[in-house]
Write a structure and sequence with these properties.
Elements (H helix, E strand, L loop, with lengths): L16 E7 L5 H18 L4 E6 L28 E6 L10 H12 L2 E6 L2 H6 L7 E2 L6 H7 L4 E2 L4 E4 L2 E4 L2 H16 L1 H10 L25 H11 L8 H7 L5 H11 L4 H19 L4 H7 L5 H12 L3 H6 L1
Parallel strand pairs: 1-2, 1-3, 3-4, 4-8, 5-6
Antiparallel strand pairs: 7-8
Helix pairs in contact: 1-5, 1-6, 5-6, 7-10, 11-12
């Protein structure tokens, strides 16, 4: 059995499994739902409480998610309260939780748990607690470069989720749902997992090792497959943009004009305009979510200079990047 499947929670077992779920402010409500709701549905399918959980926060108050909805919790995170699995769901700002009592408490709780899960930016907590050293891990694609720099001893992968012994990390809400279906399948069997997926009309379950895309294309039935191929090429060249003619050649050798027609029909804009928008969206995340200097952001998103970056950013968002960061 490969190392990634040796975690004891991924084995056929009908005995109850308890989870302590630490919800941090700034996380996505979808990540919370993707963690809890498949387990709730599994209990319903099984007709008994196979999975038990309690939601907690760092201070006992209801953490507010990115959409503004607070999450009701049963109290504050307490390392002394036993749980088979310790989960942390992180989001904006989690990367800065690098010291203090929360990290120490999480480290203590992890020692007695059978498994530890970092959902989306929750992986930052695992990293700061020293749990990723020598381990394979993933995080949301927006954080890849910064995450890799912060935790050089971790083997960062572009997978949707990674199970490395008792240490588990996911890249976002949908990969977390896939992970929970995997847990249900391992403990209760494939039939139960299919029933849980059917509860949510979820027919897009993906394996852990599928790479995370920057642009989630969904189903492209009826669209030219070269559209998806072109977008994938663009997202892997954010920092060193290719000419549209070069992208067209990589898409089966089509002409630039053909690729432009494909983009206009499917997206309503030229491939050049879409590529610029993709780069500026990446830049906006770096402006708002990091302290990177503007010159570094310009370089990371393929602009020739900080001034060229600032002009393009201002045209797109009606504010210079430095002004948007301040406000």
């Amino acid at each position: 059995m490969p190392r990634s499947e040796q975690t004891t929670i991924f084995a056929a077992d009908l005995s109850p499994l308890s989870l302590a779920i630490l919800v941090l402010p700034g996380c996505s409500i979808m990540c919370v739902a993707s963690t809890v709701d498949p387990l709730r549905a599994a209990n319903r399918v099984a007709g008994r409480n196979i999975f038990g959980w309690r939601l907690v926060s760092a201070d006992g108050n209801a953490p507010r998610t990115t959409c503004g909805l607070p999450v009701a919790v049963s109290g504050h995170f307490d390392a002394r309260l036993a749980a088979d699995v310790v989960v942390v769901i992180g989001g904006f700002g989690t990367r800065h939780e690098s010291a203090g009592p929360l990290i120490a408490a999480f480290r203590r709780a992890a020692r007695s748990a059978r498994a530890v899960i970092g959902v989306e930016a929750g992986g930052w907590i695992l990293g700061h607690a020293g749990l990723l050293d020598g381990r394979s891990a993933t995080t949301h694609w927006e954080d890849f470069e910064d995450f890799a720099a912060a935790f050089p001893d971790a083997d960062l992968r572009h997978d949707r989720y990674v199970v490395d012994g008792p240490i588990i990390t996911t890249g976002g809400a949908a990969p977390t749902f896939d992970l929970m279906l995997h847990l249900v399948r391992a403990r209760l069997g494939m039939a139960a997992a299919l029933d849980v997926a059917s509860v949510f009309i979820y027919d897009q379950s993906r394996p852990a090792t599928d790479a995370q895309p920057l642009v989630s294309l969904g189903r492209l039935d009826g669209y030219d497959p070269r559209l998806a191929q072109a977008i994938r090429i663009m997202e892997t060249h954010i920092d060193r943009p290719l000419p549209i003619s070069a992208i067209a050649r990589r898409c089966g050798g089509v002409s630039t004009r053909t690729l432009e027609k494909t983009f206009m029909a499917a997206i309503g804009e030229t491939p050049g305009a879409y590529f610029l928008r993709l780069r500026l969206a990446a830049a906006r995340r770096l402006v708002l979510d990091t302290n990177e200097p503007m010159a570094v952001i310009a370089e990371r998103t393929g602009f020739s200079s900080a001034s060229a970056f600032s002009r393009a950013y201002s045209r797109a968002f009606a504010q210079p990047p430095a002004t948007m960061r301040r406000t």
